[in-house]
Design goal:
Number of strands: 30
Largest sheet: 7 strands, mixed
Strand content: 25-35%
Mean pLDDT: 85
Structural class: mainly beta
Length: about 500
């Protein structure tokens, strides 16, 4: 699980471009000073008072923004006026708006009796609406009978109650005219935290719990939620035009389905790398901007929220699958051992969730990723092969590669420069005497230089925004050196 994948080509916009030899040796890593916006690794969302949290949600209409400058009429769940939930993590200082896409992430605990009161604030022409909570036995009251669940009539309400028995990541979405209402944005996520974590799991400041499940293999340090969805703006335009015209009920032509916007957590690249709750996206509060230190255990919570399946491809390493739809994948002959596969692409099946653990150490690259030289006098004390000196600037280094030189001549500094995103070195952080000179005009070298791996949909059209590359389902994983603090505030 620690050996990184080394790619020999980059698939972009339908063109498979061979990499020059020195970039091959740098395993498709963009080396840059980590001047990106601060990350918030504990999954943001709202919570209530355990063991009986109550959430008051409303389905509303509003607009979302896209990087091409377009704003798209959409529907989404949000917090009912007057309902002020607890927003977590508290350090983010976020809010819950009256309409957001995706809907508020509901964070609860195993054993909680959850109550969700839904009010239908959609235009009357949209008709009834509802919520289906995948993986839970739900009791519904009020509203009107629907095909999948009780529905809230225009201006009316319905109540859903369920007890969460298993931890994990789950989807929720509209059960009323789902071909239209899910497309318009009525979906969200539920995260269930375990009641307790195994011995040895320690919760840090960047996770909602010490473990995702009740087994030691689910311990983690940081977490991110990735909700994949797509939008056909023509459907949204039809719905908006009929609302404005007073047409009732709304009837749209949804086939042939031709999505032209591809979203992770309601945003497209580069917007998805901006901060959570950024003021530029009042109806799209959640980002997709993963950061980590070497050997951090990163919990990936992945949900397919759209009509299409999107292959979520992550560079840097495989990820060990823990569970699907909250169901641990355990060995049949030994239920204490994980049986989930190692994947480098997670298929985001509609309505399905996958929890997986990702890590990165540099093991297997066969050079000193920190760029040490003998004169640096930085020890590498191995524990299971990795440096285990607490507080060391190279904590977690794969010791057999300590002091090994990079096997090729590094690229010229200007190749690894992009405005202020300048690393000045092909190594993780700037160590000892192995520093690359600055290009003319730059006077200060950033000490937090790290690696960036592209995480994206492996369907090449889906890394576009309205057919313009780059965009869509794309983000960057930033590997920060151990000595560099990741700003989680």
């Amino acid at each position: 699980m620690n050996a990184p994948k080394i790619k020999t080509y980059c698939a972009v916009a339908g063109i498979r471009s061979p990499l020059i030899s020195m970039m091959l040796a740098l395993f498709m890593v963009i080396i840059l000073a980590v001047l990106v916006t601060p990350a918030h690794a504990a999954t943001p969302g709202i919570t209530g008072v355990s063991p009986a949290p109550v959430f008051n949600l409303t389905a509303n209409a509003d607009r979302i923004s896209q990087p091409d400058g377009n704003t798209i009429y959409s529907w989404g769940y949000g917090c009912t006026t007057g309902f002020i939930p607890v927003v977590v993590p508290s350090s983010i200082g976020g809010t819950c708006s009256s309409m957001q896409l995706p809907g508020p992430t509901l964070i609860v605990h195993q054993g909680d009796l959850v109550t969700v009161n839904l009010t239908n604030g959609l235009p009357a022409a949209a008709g009834k609406t509802s919520i289906v909570f995948s993986g839970f036995h739900v009791t519904a009251s009020g509203g009107a009978n629907g095909l999948l669940t009780q529905e809230a009539v225009p201006g009316g309400s319905v109540t859903y109650s369920f007890t969460v028995s298993n931890p994990g990541t789950y989807a929720y979405y509209s059960g009323s005219q789902p071909d239209l209402q899910i497309e318009m944005g009525l979906f969200g996520a539920v995260i269930v935290l375990p009641t307790s974590s195994p011995a040895g799991c320690t919760q840090g400041g960047f996770s909602l719990a010490a473990s995702a499940y009740g087994i030691p293999q689910s311990c983690y340090d940081r977490e991110y939620l990735f909700q994949f969805s797509e939008m056909d703006s023509r459907i949204h335009e039809q719905a908006e035009a009929q609302v404005l015209a007073g047409t009732s009920p709304i009837t749209v032509v949804s086939e042939p389905y031709q999505p032209n916007y591809f979203l992770i957590n309601g945003r497209s690249m580069p917007d998805d790398m901006d901060t959570n709750y950024a003021s530029n996206y009042p109806s799209q509060p959640y980002n997709a901007n993963p950061h980590m230190h070497p050997r951090d255990l990163v919990l990936m919570r992945v949900i397919g929220q759209g009509r299409w399946q999107h292959p979520f491809h992550f560079h840097g390493n495989h990820a060990r699958v823990l569970a699907r739809d909250g169901n641990l994948l355990l060995a049949q002959n030994d239920p204490t051992q994980l049986a989930g596969p190692l994947l480098f692409t997670i298929p985001t099946v509609s309505g399905q969730s996958v929890d997986a653990i990702f890590t990165w150490s540099g093991q297997g690259l066969n050079w000193d990723v920190y760029g040490h030289q003998a004169a640096d006098n930085i020890p590498c004390s191995p524990a299971n092969g990795f440096n285990n000196i607490p507080g060391s600037s190279n904590f977690g280094e794969w010791c057999p590669d300590h002091l090994k030189p990079i096997p090729v001549t590094p690229p010229e500094p200007n190749i690894v420069a992009n405005g202020l995103w300048y690393g000045g070195t092909p190594y993780l952080g700037l160590q000892g005497s192995n520093l690359t000179p600055l290009p003319p005009g730059l006077t200060k070298q950033n000490q937090d230089a790290g690696y960036a791996y592209m995480w994206h949909s492996h369907n090449e059209r889906e890394i576009t925004t309205n057919d313009v590359f780059p965009g869509g389902m794309m983000m960057m994983l930033i590997i920060d050196p151990p000595s560099a603090p990741i700003n989680e505030m």
